[in-house]
Amino acid sequence: MPDPMKIRATTVGDETEVKVLMSHEMETGQRKDGQGKTIPAWFIQNVSVTWNSKTVLSAQWGTAVAKNPFVSFRFKGGAKGDKITVTWVDNRAEKRTDESMIA
Amino acid sequence: MNRGRRKALQSGGATLLALLAANGWLPSARAQSWNKSAFDAHSLGDTMQALGGGEPAQSKEIAFFQTPEIAENGAVVPIGISSSLPNTQAIAILIEKNPNMLAAVFDILPGTEPTITTRVKMAQTSNVYALVKADGKYYVASKEIKVTLGGCGG
Lengths: 103, 154
Fold this sequence. Notes:
The complex is a heterodimer. By secondary structure, chain A is mainly beta. Helices cover 0% and strands 50% of the residues of chain A.
């Protein structure tokens, strides 16, 4: 089971700012190990963020997103205590979902 | 309030949603697909073709922010992109000299600001393209980022 994400959501005026830090190797598939064998690519492919049950951001990623990915964005609306849910799925079909409340 | 009932409704709803999503009946399920040909592409032309767009028009309405001129460590390069093009639908990051150009595509849904920040890996000094889909058309802005230590090496 991968480590949990860190999700911080705060209201800024009439908007909500969401910052997410995920824990993932994001292996590019370009590197070689000590024996000269290619280390297979292992990376998050899909990310979605929902506010209550409405999707506010969805993303597709390649191997070039940095290890332990970070993303931040803003959406209109959102109030203290509303639920923010972030889900990622990687190329091994491993999945992680975490929740946070807007502070 | 009947908390048990609320819980049952929530989990029931979630199961139904998951079922619908698994069968591809929800738009969110389609959005969850991964555009393999776009991420495998090596040139801007091939990437654009895989994304279903033509040659993007240069735009001054797309801006980089919190993005360095020089990245000391190519493994972690912060990129911020904002678009002031009306009806921005998606923002993508492409890195010209990476093995595969396309790094990420963010769908900007209604109510979400056309501004995102993230961190990418860069193999070497390269032009970085901010590709924006707005009102069905593609626009682009670029910025050169110098990398002093590559992020994809062994």
